[in-house]
Amino acid sequence: MRQGWSRKDEQFVRDNYGTMTQRELANELGKTYAAVERKIARMSLSKPKINIIKDEQMKFDVNDFVEFFNKYKNIEVPKLQTIK
């Protein structure tokens, strides 16, 4: 039996599309994967773009590193505790 989309369902998709997979959305809403896929397309939703850092952006000047290290070398770093 065909099940319609409530406003609450649509809002759930909008709120969670960026963090949940389509299969997770379908399971949570009690809908098929295909139904969720069609709904996402009709709503024109898109996941946030990942900002990819290019190699040339990763380069740093050694002097910058030395300056940073010298600035913070006397700061005490708390020890991490191991959870057993």
The secondary-structure element order is HHHHH
* Mean residue pLDDT: 82
**Unreliable stretches:** none
How many β-strands, per DSSP? 0
* Main sheet: strands, sense, barrel: none
What amount of the residues lies in strands? under 5%
How many angstroms separate the termini? 51 Å
Shape: elongated
- Radius of gyration over C-alpha positions, nearest whole angstrom: 23 Å
Tally of helical segments? 5
SSE layout and pairing:
Blueprint: H1 7-16, H2 22-29, H3 33-42, H4 55-58, H5 62-72
Helix pairs in contact: 2-3
How would you describe this protein?
This protein is an all-alpha fold and 84 residues long. The protein has a domain at 7-42. 51% of the residues lie in helices and 0% in strands. It contains five helices and no strands. The chain has helices spanning 7-16, 22-29, 33-42, 55-58, 62-72. Helix 2 (22-29) crosses helix 3 (33-42). The model has no long low-confidence stretch (mean pLDDT 82).
Summarize the structure.
The chain is mainly α and about 80 residues long. The protein contains 5 helices and no strands.
Keywords:
about 80 residues; mainly alpha; 5 helices; about 0% strand; elongated
